Amino acid sequence: MKINQLNIVVLTGAGISAESGLRTFRDNGGLWEEHPVEEVATPQAWQRNPSMVWGFYQSRRRQLSEVEPNPAHFALSKLAEYAKDFFLITQNVDDLHERSGIMDVVHMHGQLRMLRCELSGKSEERMEPSDLESDFQFCTCCETASRLRPDIVWFGEQPMNMVEIYNKIETCDVFIVVGSSGHVYPAAGLVNFAKQSNAQTILINLEEPLNSFMFDETHFGSAGKILPKLVNEWIEQSSL
Ligand code: OAD
Fold it and tell me: Tens of pLDDT along 189-211?
């Protein structure tokens, strides 16, 4: 694959951050096992028990400073450097892609670094030590400061940036998915859209996910081992 001649779109899921020490959602011991979705990841949960939801996300926000990007994140930033065109979509709410050197990451499901004003809907980056305390935080945009919620897409809410995402996939040559179980739509259906747009589709995942039959090429194993090798192979092929 001559990546220097190709327009590449990558979609990542929780699996790419697993080797950095962040738990995935649906694997054994995954986050949803200990914290049911209905209790921490829906607008109804936020209305019913905001303290529980706030506590869940504050602890995940604090955890960001304890983890580092892993070889899979760095392999993607190398791919971004060598590809003719590169666009990264992530379902992840962590900041590990940015910290591996890719600055323009499109987050479909929001970002832990950001909080959103409940009244105006405006998001602000809030990662100072005082922003990470257990108490609710308040916005800087309203005259009387309003409560902030996590800037996360909960179940029943619309994923972010979908128009841009479909536009980029429609014109890509290669669509690569890394570390996603294929359970959550619309992300899980993007591979169908890529195929309809005549892109080559490649999957890298620990285990076979639900939608693996949609991919032209599959690689099963840990992303931290597989991706650096694949990217190096593609770079070599490009220089021939
Ligand atoms: P899941 O937890 O559903 O799936 C993670 C996938 O990564 C699984 O298929 C694992 O086999 C794979 N995996 C685990 N470790 C890996 C490794 N080291 N290398 C490669 N693959 C590995 O996570 P997502 O598919 O990202 O949404 O979940 C999608 C969405 O569901 C999340 O964004 C979140 C969740 O509910 C919201 O919170 C809105």
Answer: 999 999 999 999 999 999 999 89
Distances (CA, A) of 102 to 74, 83, 96: 9, 13, 9
Write down the mean pLDDT value for the chain: 96
Name which residue sits closest to atom 29 of ligand 1, judged by CA.
184
The CATH number given to 23-66+116-152 is 3.30.1600.10
Instruction: Evaluate whether 94 touches 22 at the Cβ level (below 8 Å).
Output: yes
In this chain, the answer to whether the domains covering 1-22+69-109+158-240 and 23-66+116-152 adopt an identical fold is no
CATH class name, domain 1-22+69-109+158-240: alpha beta
How would residue 29 be classed by pLDDT, with cut points 50, 70 and 90?
confident
Q: Among the atoms of ligand 1, which is closest to the Cα of residue 223?
A: 19
| pTM of the predicted structure, to 2 decimals | 0.96
Exposure pattern of 112-148 as b/e (b: 16+ CB <10 Å)? bbbbbbeeeebbbebeeeebbeeeebebeeeeeeeeb
pLDDT digits 0-9 by tens, 49-62: 999 999 999 999 99
Q: Which residues pair with 178 in a beta bridge?
A: 12, 204
Q: Mutation test of ligand 1: which of 19, 23, 26, 207 has the most ligand atoms closer than 8 Å to its C-beta?
A: 26
